[in-house]
Amino acid sequence: MAIKIIDQPFDPYQELQLYQNSTLAHQGAIGATSIFIGTMRDFNQGSQVTGMSIEHYPGMTEKQLALCVEKAQGLWSILDSLIIHRVGTITPNEVIVLIAVWSSHRGDAFDATRYIMEALKSTVPFWKKECLETEAERWVMSNTSGYQ
Amino acid sequence: MSIKVYYFASLKEHVGSSEHELDFIQSLTVTEVWLQANAELVLPRNTLAAINMEYVEWDSLVSDGDVVAFFPPVTGG
């Protein structure tokens, strides 16, 4: 399992390749790889958005992400996982988050990926502040309520 | 007893500071920590609290050396 918080743009496909080549355990047992990539949109709640900054609580962020993975491991059979999340200044089309889950079977991989993503959105201490086309700024004040 | 209090995101702007140090004599709950540190300020609805990087309820007791954090609902991903 790997968790990375980074403040620079990253290529999720390159990160996946690197992880698969260098770190991934259980190579022979893997039958499914599920990947979620979240990118920044240029609109939200009826406004054009030109950029955003993401703040986080260093330490608690990593701790809560590890907890998301631990809970997923209790529900599904997971062989390995990789989570990368951006912080700092972001522009539209850039990747915000990558979640990859490796499992022997697709059902476990699909469900665990979605669980980790929904748990991240509802429990991990990141906060987005949007820059609008009008040059105004606003905090994003609500998110989804978790895996259902 | 002494603790550190951190604020994040919109709550940091609301408080006007990212952290406070608080000294106290008898045990405090998380609610009492907020009241001692920010007596003049209304606590925004839906504010979350953590002690030592774990989510806690507002009646949780704070111990010497703890780090308490207050922040708005999270919006990552």
Mean pLDDT of chain B: 96
The backbone outline of chain B, from C-alpha atoms, is globular
How far apart the termini of chain B lie comes to 37 Å
Content of β-strand of chain B: 25-35%
Oligomer: heterodimer
CA-atom Rg of chain B in angstroms: 12 Å
How does this model look, in words?
The complex is a heterodimer of chains A (148) and B (77). Chain A is of the alpha+beta class and 148 residues long. Chain A is 30% helix and 36% strand. The model of chain A has no long low-confidence stretch (mean pLDDT 95). Chain B has one domain (2-71): Roll (Ubiquitin-like (UB roll)). Chain B contains 2 helices and 7 strands; from the N terminus they run E-H-E-E-H-E-E-E-E. In chain B, the strands form 2 sheets. In chain B, strands 2-1-7-4-5 form a 5-stranded mixed β-sheet. In chain B, strands 3-6 form a two-stranded antiparallel sheet. The mean pLDDT of chain B is 96. The interface between A and B is medium-sized, with 28 and 16 residues.
Short recap of the structure:
The complex is a heterodimer of chains A (148) and B (77). Chain A is an alpha+beta fold and 148 residues long. Chain A is built from three helices and nine strands, in the order E-H-E-E-E-H-E-E-E-H-E-E.
